[in-house]
Structure prediction request, 203 residues.
Amino acid sequence: MNIAELADLVQNEPVFSSSLLRVGGNQQEQIRVQLARWVRSGRVTQLRRGVYVLAKPYRKIEPHPFVMANSLSKASYVSCQSALGFYGLIPEHVPVVTSATTGRPEQIKTPMGSFLFRHLKKDLFAGYKRIPVGDRQEATIGTPEKALVDLLYLTPECDSEEYVRELRLQNMETVGRDALTMWSDRTGSLKVARAVRRILSSI
Prediction:
């Protein structure tokens, strides 16, 4: 397989895994060696072991950061500041894509950006959906209410007046009060409940 054949094979996949290349009966070792060559030559970018993106001259779809985040950890969804920024609930640009995961917490730095994965226990791993993010791509993202509760849950002293003010929340009329309270209750966290009450009282 040459790079043109690879580009044709993954043309609709902004992020692809090495397992995708086994469909033609290629041997695993041959695939590993060829991918290593393409990475060294700059034709393919490796995000992590087994996860790749074609270099700019060859890719037909510009991979969205949220799609890359989903691909780096299958058991994850984009949440916290990243999701809140996506929904326009906070004003700041968020350079690091933050996701919630049932796996171990980690930060992955790649040539395509930095990705932070924060651990949630399994019974809180919910409240997400597939959403179009442009250029024929979809990503798994927490709902506005769940993303906000995730951020509060994962932040020490989130219930302080100063912290809530520093969030600079905006467009909160798009957030469901009942859903926000429901996700807050589900955490069983008193600090989250207090923070949510502060937020709701300011809407």
Observations:
- The longest strand covers residues 113-119.
- The mean pLDDT is 93.
